[in-house]
Design a protein that fits this description.
316 residues; mainly alpha; MetI-like fold
């Protein structure tokens, strides 16, 4: 009996190894190719640029690179006379641009959400500024604000009857203003689209209850619309704050950061250091300082997003 059982076991076919895919691993399997591509395309260049920021690398001394630690960062933060004025101007530019885009975008979103007819056409027209490349916007507004043949000065001449030669792109304050106008014109539609999506997704029950209680339009906007819309507001502001680096093209075309660095922003200054001044390591270090502050600002905004969502969940 024992011999027969052993012979039977030996004669039985061996089971092949079968891989069983667990559905729990499906999300990881779906995002893994994207993670690998991002690591190769974004991660490795960032690590290499981080290494260059702690060296004395220049294009003329590429074969003789030395590790110098945080010297580039120390030079920028404590010895460079232009860094802090440029940094402050960039913070001011970002703050004004994002907040004004929010105000104009909210007004447009409110009007768009109340349209009964022609919403598709109105949205298409509203999105037209987003269809232009930033470099084209820069050339467009450079012509608008040209001191001699610009549209703005000619329009002022038509209205007042007096010739105006306002140096919009050269004056320190006016140059900053023209850059701000170009950036707001180009990016306000993005803010309006996100806010309009948020307005259209708001529940109707609170507004109906407010109508029964006799609340005014301003009271409904202040007490219902804005609190419920805050997650969309913070999300839009976070995206725009990071995306505003596209203003490099506009600034570079319209003023080039000049004259005499009067309209210089962080992104144009990085380009001036790295390529114009042949200080590539210094420009890379400045880029990482900019990225660090951008991440901190984004972290604060997204923390407010989470707080507003938690508050909404608690109210429910």
């Amino acid at each position: 009996m024992t011999d027969a059982a052993e012979i039977g076991k030996e004669a039985a076919p061996k089971k092949k190894f079968e891989f069983q895919f667990n559905e729990k691993h499906l999300p990881i399997a779906l995002i893994l190719p994207g993670i690998i591509i991002i690591a190769l395309v974004v991660g490795l260049p960032m690590l290499y640029s981080l290494y260059l920021s702690v060296t004395d690398f220049t294009f003329t001394t590429a074969k003789n690179v030395h590790f110098i630690g945080l010297q580039n960062y120390y030079t920028l933060l404590f010895k460079d006379k232009l860094f802090w004025p440029v940094f402050g101007r960039t913070i001011l530019f970002t703050t004004l641009a994002v907040n004004l885009e929010f105000i104009f975008g909210l007004a447009i979103a409110q009007l768009m959400s109340r349209l009964i007819r022609g919403q598709s056409l109105a949205r298409t027209l509203m999105m037209m500024p987003m269809m232009f490349a930033p470099i084209l916007v820069g050339f467009q507004f450079k012509w608008f604000f040209n001191a001699q043949i610009g549209l703005v000065n000619n329009l002022l001449y038509t209205i007042t009857g007096k010739a105006h030669m306002i140096p919009w792109l050269i004056d320190k304050g006016l140059g900053f203003l023209t850059l701000l106008v170009a950036e707001i014109w180009m990016s306000t539609p993005f803010m309006a689209i996100i806010l309009e999506a948020g307005i259209l997704s708001l529940p109707l029950e609170p507004f109906e209850a407010a109508d029964i209680d006799g609340a005014t339009g301003w009271q409904k906007f202040r007490m219902i619309t804005m609190p419920l819309l805050m997650p969309f507001v913070y999300t839009a502001m976070a995206i725009r704050s990071l995306d505003i680096a596209r203003a490099y093209d506009v600034v570079n075309i319209m003023t080039g950061g000049g004259p005499a660095n009067r309209t210089e922003l962080m992104w144009t200054y990085v380009n001036r250091l790295a390529f114009g001044g042949q200080q590539f390591a210094m420009g890379t270090a400045m880029s990482y300082i900019t990225v660090l502050f951008s991440f901190l600002f984004t972290f604060l905004l997204f923390r407010n997003v989470l707080k507003s969502r938690w508050a909404g969940d608690m109210d429910e």
